[in-house]
Amino acid sequence: MTVTPGLVTGLLLLAAAAGLILFGRRLAGRWPREQWLVSLGRVLAAVAGVFLVATATVLARADVTCGIVVAIDQASLTDVHAFTLRTSDGVTVRYTIEPGRLAPDSFGPGHLREHLAFASPVCVTHSSGGIVALDLRDQLASPSP
User: What is the DSSP string of 27-88?
Assistant: First the structure.
């Protein structure tokens, strides 16, 4: 799981809600007129925290798309800017490669030229709905029965 600002903020809000739940009675005892504010703070912090944690973990998950490389936009063999992938259902998707965004154990962008030449499939990990490649892998052939 990737640690995002939304996840951190959500966890802090959940911690604040837990603090208000545990120590809210003391706070409300000090300021009886503002008892409703403590209750409202509990609810708002809990709801906002749950929303941010859910959004950061569920909506920001990575998707994997596999297909054949059909085009490469590159300045040199190792300086690849983007590539186009055709999936098994015929959809073509263009992915950009930003320096520093690829996973450290991903194969190098220059290896895409080999996949283009031999029409061997590639799997690209990208954020949901995103077009920036986060990881590049050789697609392993499934064994024949």
Answer: HHHH-GGGHHHHHHHHHHHHHHHHHHHHIIIIIT-EEEEEEEEEEEEESSSS-EEEEEEEET
Q: Is residue 73 part of a domain?
A: yes
The three-state secondary structure class of 114 is: helix
Listed residues 16, 39, 59: the one ending a domain: 59
Domain boundary among 59, 81, 99: 59
> CA angle 92-83-61, nearest 5°?
75
For the chain, the domain total comes to 2
For residue 11, the enclosing domain spans 5-59
Q: Are residues 46 and 99 in the same domain?
A: no
Q: What's the CATH code of the domain at 111?
A: 2.40.50
CB 121 within 8 A of CB 67: yes
Tens-binned pLDDT, residue by residue, of the chain (145 aa):
556 666 677 777 777 777 777 777 776 677 667 677 767 777 877 787 777 777 666 655 668 889 999 999 988 877 888 899 999 899 999 988 887 777 777 777 778 888 889 999 998 888 766 688 888 888 775 544 4
What is the spatial distance between Cα 106 and Cα 122, in angstroms, rounded to a whole number?
11
